[in-house]
Amino acid sequence: MKKPGLEPVVWNPPLPSESAPDRLPTLRTFPLPGSGPEDVLVAADGSVLTGVDDGRILRLDPETSQVTVVADTGGRPLGLEWLPDGRLLVCDAEIGLLAVEVNRGSERVPTGVPTTGLGKVETLVDQVDGQQVRICNNASVGADGTIWFTDSSARFDFAHWKGDLIEHRGTGRLLRRDPDGSTSTVCAGLQFANGVALNADASAVYVAETGSYALHRVDLSGSSAGIREPVAENLPGFPDNVSLGDGGLIWVAIASPRNPIVDRLSPLPPMLRRAVWALPEKAQPKPAFEIGLVAIDPADGSTVYNLAGTNPEFGVSTGVRERNGTVWLGSLSANSIASFELTDL
Predict the structure, then answer these.
(1) How would residue 108 be classed by pLDDT, with cut points 50, 70 and 90?
(2) Residue 191 contacts by C-beta under 8 Å, 6 or more apart in sequence?
(3) What is the pLDDT of residues 115-128, one digit of tens each?
(4) Which of 110, 228, 307, 337 is the most exposed place for a label (fewest CB within 10 A)?
(5) Is the pTM of this model over 0.85?
(6) Contact 80, 88 (CB under 8 A)
(7) DSSP label at 178?
């Protein structure tokens, strides 16, 4: 696949915070028969669902570590949420917004088993306002079935996601799908729109801008509807998925710490970033195999937890979900998901 051209925009990143993160608690890791379990979602029975880079949706039983295949999107699943009808909502970076049955047939791994009997996959959205959804990334679902979801870039597909961050043109969108199937743009011009979380009273959503180290609040009604208000504008790295915890905290997965090379090049002539983009993939800046998490109090925007650490079996933390005292983590590139207990903080 030919690499798209780059049209970099000059910008000045905020200065990195001088405050050091707290050490991440010891993780429990769960090996998977697949790579890149980008998001995690906890079911009512305590099992954990995730999607891997070959399109399969996996279900993990944390008690036995048994893994089953419950569906296959045929694309690249990223964000996961529950729909009111019990189906799994999947943000597929290559296809769009999907509804997937995960409670019919299931088959044990390892890979290579037949996929007959797996859950039916329905495409809900693949374009909005006449524009293709190029990187469907993350979503949040209201009680009535209204879906807020992100399209990270209008210029780059998932295979070239890094180009959007290097370019910094800001073509991401926060989108909405109503229960009747109609769709609309809530706000545009986002720097690699990523994680989405509906707040407790459904009056606003929080959306992460990976390309600007920021988290914003977007009101959903009234005179300020669709307007972004900053909550955190200097996160310690590239924010990815966002979720609302049981205790009301907004959890933000930090996929990678900030890259000094990327920050230094951003205010310099665009030709320098074009040169970086022209390099072979292995020579370009890449996410560090580290773990980062931030938890924010939505009442005042204060940071409650700023956690960082490393684990040889897990890194590039892109998904986070707090349920019943356990924090679950997903990854863009690891072959496992991970967890720790809130009581260990």
Answers:
(1) very low
(2) 168, 170, 172, 209, 210, 211, 212, 214
(3) 445 788 999 999 99
(4) 110
(5) yes
(6) yes
(7) -
